[in-house]
Design goal:
Elements lengths: L1 E6 L9 E6 L6 E8 L5 E3 L2 E3 L5 E5 L1 E3 L2 E6 L1 H4 L7 E6 L2 E6 L66 H24 L32 H5 L6 H10 L6 H13 L3 H11 L4 H9 L7 H13 L5 H13 L4 H10 L2
Helix pairs in contact: 4-5, 5-6, 6-7, 6-8, 8-9, 8-10, 9-10
Length: 340
């Protein structure tokens, strides 16, 4: 069966894809299952999972332009562009690369609209208004001038004869205070100030000794210490540990370097998908093997060349020659994108 993935023209906002089927299925509906070629996992309602899951069934529409069915955001919103996938439509299956012109629905990657929270503004308490007081001004009649009466300052009373008594009493109280202070100093001399306590000595703990390097150079811990280094060191360790390192650990190291844009790692991914003897030699060296897929190999070789890996140029040219003899739509699309 041949399956072409196109945007659904009736949904210009994205989130839907049209699968053109040739030949048309015998039944009027078909279920769709999606498997990631890289990880081998199947797409489910909550993302990629190890067990097989299927969506649908979807109605198959047959018209003058052939047969097709429409899948929605439950599939489109969960697949990134250029992901190599294996589509199972009914009883048929085909490997292809998810196109970049099938856009996900705007907003969240899962189904469900965006609900806007509404707030109600409480009524403001009424404020009591007070009427302004009216102030009336009385204007003076012209021609009349009222002068204030002159104010005479009061005359201070004459001093009394007995005013010296309070002064003498105050002076006597001051002398008594001075005498009491002198008596206190004589009877209670100053005590010596206590000596300051010595400051406590803080002991500084010695720096912890560095952990010894793992004895097994092929363990996940030992290989993980090379993640920040150049990919050439990682490649050498993978070849050294071929047969004793788990494929998942080796694949994780290569994927991390490829995601960082390392040209050597991208070129290695292309060799893993290369349809010639290159993939077999890579399997012997690092213990990884993928199914041959020249369109995906051309994509990785092209990205490696753009990242500055000159060794990927002849590999890309050889892959493009093989694609020229392949009449499939996937091969034609790969030639147009990566072999120009």
């Amino acid at each position: 069966m041949r399956i072409d993935i196109r945007p659904d023209p009736s949904k210009p906002m994205g989130g839907y894809a049209r699968l053109d089927l040739e030949p048309a299925p015998d039944t009027g509906e078909a279920s769709v299952a999606v498997r990631n070629v890289f990880s081998g996992q199947y797409l489910g309602e909550d993302g990629w999972q190890p067990t097989r899951a299927a969506f649908g069934p979807y109605p198959v529409v047959t018209g003058e332009d052939g047969a097709h069915l429409i899948v929605g955001p439950e599939i489109v919103n969960q697949i990134e562009e250029y992901t190599p996938v294996e589509l199972h439509v009914g009883e048929a299956s085909v490997q292809t690369s998810w196109p970049d012109d099938v856009a996900p629905a705007p907003g969240a990657a899962r189904l469900g609209g965006i609900t806007a929270a509404s707030t109600q503004r409480g009524a403001e308490p009424e404020k009591a208004l007070r009427a302004p007081q009216r102030v009336e001004e009385v204007a003076e009649e012209p021609g009349e001038s009222v002068e204030p009466d002159p104010v005479t300052p009061p005359t201070p009373p004459p001093p009394e004869r007995g005013s010296r008594v309070p002064v003498l009493i105050g002076a006597l109280l001051v002398l008594l205070g001075i005498a009491a202070a002198l008596a206190y100093l004589f009877l209670f001399p100053d005590e010596p100030e206590p000596e300051p306590e010595p400051e406590p000595v803080v002991e500084v703990a010695p720096d912890p000794e560095p952990e010894p390097a793992p004895s097994d150079p092929c363990s996940a811990e030992a290989v993980g210490q090379l993640s920040d280094g150049p990919f050439t060191e990682i490649r050498a360790r993978l070849e050294e540990c071929s047969g004793s390192m788990s494929p998942d650990t080796a694949l994780a190291m290569v994927e991390q370097a490829a995601d960082a844009g390392d040209g050597a790692a991208l070129s290695l991914f292309g060799q893993l998908y290369d349809g010639e003897e290159t993939a077999a030699s890579i399997e012997d060296e690092i213990g990884l093997t993928f199914a041959s897929n020249d369109p995906i190999a051309a994509e990785y070789y092209h990205r490696a060349v753009e990242a500055g890996a000159s060794e990927a140029e002849p590999l890309l040219a050889a892959t493009c020659e093989r694609l020229a003899g392949d009449g499939s739509d996937l091969a034609r699309s790969a030639r147009e994108d990566y072999c120009q």
